[in-house]
Amino acid sequence: MKKPDANHYRLFISSVQKELAVERRAVKDFITHDPLFSRFISDVFLFEDIPAGDRKPDDIYLREVEGCDIYLAILGNEYGWKNDAGMSPTELEFEHATKTHRERLVFVKGDDDTTRAPEMAELVRKAGRQVTRRRFSDTPGLIREVYASLIECLEHRGALRSTPFDGSVCDGATLHDIDNAHVTAFVKAAEAAGRLKLKGPRSPKAVLQNFNLLRDGHPTNAAILLFGKSPHQFFNNVQVHCFHFYGTEKRKPIASQQPYEGRLFEVIDQAVEFVLGKIDRSVGTRAMSTQAPVEFEIPRPVITEAIVNAVAHRNYHSNGFVQVIVFSDRVEVWNPGELPPGLTPQLLREPHGPMPRNPLIAEPLYRINYVEKAGTGTTDMIADCQKAGLPEPDFEQRGPYFVVTVWRDRLTEDVIASLGLNDRQKTAILFIKQHGRITNKQYQELSKVTDRTVLRDIQELINKDVFHKIGTTGRATYYILKKKPDINPTNPT
Questions:
Q1: Please, are residues 370 and 306 in contact by the beta-carbon 8 Å criterion?
Q2: pTM for this predicted structure
Q3: Number of structural domains the chain divides into
Q4: Residue 393, preceding peptide bond in cis (omega within 30° of 0)
Q5: Which one of 201, 216, 233 terminates a domain?
């Protein structure tokens, strides 16, 4: 199949044909007749446009998906015809678009997922974990969402020329809004890290020019975010909001919360310290040095990488904030935006090249060891979690946010489900996650069973490497969750 010329793209429309025939046709007609999109999109594929005598579904649709540049799915209530493996063409097309790294745009009709066929509801959830799903209620609403998505898509591909956010001039800012002392401190830190050998003038203005942070003598958005005296005066969405909840859900009372705003370097450090101040730590001995080592339950580099990625790669056109949330069993980092086209959550578990959304922000962060250019950040996170005896992190798209989940212990919902425990034992695990320990008496009060049943339940939890017993006999005996057992990762790579 011949590839279209540069800036001329092929688009594939996927959906249950019978249910969404009107919507499918409306999208194609809109794109092919729109003066702007018709310049860049050379072909829009609809299966029903193929002459009936030439149709060989199994040979056509997956080949067409692989030959397209942009895959557009419209998901409704019906799942459609199933093949021998129980999968519909729509789901097969989505899977193939994911496997072949097509750019995927997903539009979901309606807000009530309970009315969908079970298989379609699951497909909607699956898509939502990987890309941003855009909802619509009627055909005009669909066209509006398609228009906005295609504009963003063409801008990202460079077909529509517009200056990226980080390279745009910061409206109203001048060189007087730059903190020169912080520019000088940055140069020293980058040189000390061995990642900068500055030649020529070393004035703050010259340094900004060297990093392409000035346009026509004016600071860019990246310059103000990194080195501005008061970035919040120019941006109202660059805060990092940190929350700490007592349990495993977002429920009041909130243990603590703190919004951080300022230069990105400082905001990152403050958010990292917020998390480290809420998770467990152990202090070693001074056998190897004069200072006792501190080991956190989640390795510090993992927390730092998750927060730096959210700040460096977020969509700054979004009004959303980066959120860092500490639960009793995990830490979640929410980033307004989504992965670049062709990059999926699964590919983050494999070696991949760097694809920064905001390269002018990422470059200074690299120079002082906050990020790597090799695209190894997420694989390093996985390796560090494995080494610490923790489950691998989760990477998923949740609506307009990309979310990284780092687990504080290995007893995730999936792991607990795999152990074959009864409801009493699951409740006891949750109790320890919230309170740190449980006694025999507390277990009995929770479960309303006899002493013999309590002992049998607890012994099974000990045998399955879930509970660790503290003490021998008597009231001083209690149980905690066992740390770092030999388990398989929950997200094998």
A1: no
A2: 0.71
A3: 4
A4: no
A5: 233
